[in-house]
Amino acid sequence: MLVIGLVAAFVATRIDPVLLRKLWPLALGVACVLLVLCFVPGIGVNRFGASRWIKLGVEFQPSEFLKVIGILAMAGWFARWQTEVHTFWRGFIIPGFIIGLPVGLIAIETDVGSALSLSVAAAAVFFCVGTRLIYLVPTALVGIAGAAAFVRSNDTRWTRILAWLDLDKYRLDEGQQQYRALLAFGNGGPEGMGLGNGTEKFGTLTFAYSDFIFPVVGEELGLPFTLGVVLCYVIITVCGCSIAMQASTVFDRCMAVGLTCVVVVPAMVNIAVTTAAFPNDGLPLPFVSYGGTSLIISLAAVGLLCGIHRRSRPMEYKALPVAGLRSYAVKL
């Protein structure tokens, strides 16, 4: 999967942005069809009560593709109607529907974490492109209220909230993962127990290879490596924002902002969950957690960011003498 991901990243760096702008409606339609296939018997794969995977020769998770394709669709729309980003219909309602459809399909799969992370990435694109706050703020408040109502009405997710608030009380059932994750960090201490010497991954810390890989890093490799993982995501954030600021087109700018969020937001949530700063959720840690689809899509997202950087021209300045005293830089 790593080789496939690296190939996808290389191809993404070379892909023609004009082609992306033309094909985003088709890509979005195909991706939504794949999401619907998650509920088709014989094709969809149900695990732990969630219908997030499909099997078409190989098994993969369509929601991971939607993270990139959804951002691509928004970028394509705003690039087409960049002079109307402040309007109600073309600047808010229609692009909201474009991203709202896949977000809703992902949420129905009970993959609420991925749906919320994609929503955050979409909100960042809306904000950066210039959509009016009078549209965004009420929508965000309604969305938060709706998410809170959904969590309160769902016994499984509400129990996760209660367990998060009192991990010691729920350490043997709903709060076991986060409780054992904290023990893993404590076992590792500043220096770690040594690569492969961790104990929590052997049964007591479930999904230690995917959703809770970060505590395993802390237990075996210690504080320097956990901080190093966090630093890597900080670097991705800084580089992504820098690429967005230097992008030469609206399309590239929207893509850079959205793709950066697609990689960084799940990482922030995963680290917050495994350190018990957030309630438990099922988001993997990009580039680190086990999962072929996630790795391929994350590498492809980085490849697209590199492609945007290649197409961007750094701002050119020319020094102009003013009153013979000093020079001011003026953008050409």
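the 2nd protein, sequnce then structure:
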Amino acid sequence: MPAPAERASDLPHLVESTLTAFVAAEAVTLTDVDEALEPLLAAARDAVLGGGKRVRPQFAYWGWRSVAGPHAPVAPVLPALAALELLHAFALVHDDVMDRSETRRGRPTAHRALAGAHRDQRLRGDAGHFGDAAAILVGDLLLVWADRLMARADVPAATLRDARTAYDRMRVEAIAGQFLDVLGDCARTWSPERALRTARLKTAGYTATWPLHYGAALAGASGPGFARGELGRAYTRYGLAVGEAFQLRDDLLGLFGEPAVTGKPVGDDLGKPTMLLLLARSRANAAQLAELEEVLAAARPDVARLAAVVRDTGAPDLLSGMIGERVADAQAALDGAPVDGGTRAALGELAAAVAWRAA
């Protein structure tokens, strides 16, 4: 187990080290079963260790530290914090299959990589179907790994059980939000209110809100009393604001981001009723609306043309304003929260970092 962090800035490195050691040990266990499992392991390993900002463990860390205090050693809870990255990797792998995404973090997505392995080995059958099926199993494996790593936390069994309450709610809400996201791809109508609800469930809950509650539970603060108390209510308000800002920024990056930075091509979410497109439609004049519908109806949408029309409606500026409002609301939640100055400052910086990120 890595040594306790002396500074909060050490946390991403400690999470990375914990994940690397855990995945290596799990890989040995599986390859001992059958060497043919190597493509499964390679895809799982890449999903976990192929990059990422390790944001969720950071929110959980500050939720934990705000209750445990600045001098508590992080080593006992580090496996539980790092487990959130395995949960995140599970969600991304499955999300990429559902969205038919080609790349993630500048590399082929799990289902594409596994389809490539099928072709390289000249296996029988359809490579695409194999890639999809195998990637679903990769995601399932990552979800099991998350539970296994969390169980290694050196905390009382009752404390870990209470933390799992927040963890389980996080998972249920993420799945509910993902279903709404999938439904939005084929719904005939979709309201801005439902788009925000989807963002709260799919993104806000498991990015910030529940990691904060989960971290606090790992320090012994949990249950309805905590959720209704001053700190629990502040973390819920802060997490919802940050999570919505995160998703709204994602909408902007999806159309205006730099692929070399985001690791994904622009226009990956053109079929989704994102808040950006909903705002663009609501603000467009007749000519702009007709052009929007024409571009989106094309078999191969002209992303540059779409971006130009959306920009002309003023929707990106309005969305940026909404992000700024949520960052301000998150800070207001912290200003009234019973936390120390270090926690308040760190969570304020995290809010700004995820809301205005470039990738």
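The mean pLDDT is 93. The longest strand covers residues 103-104.
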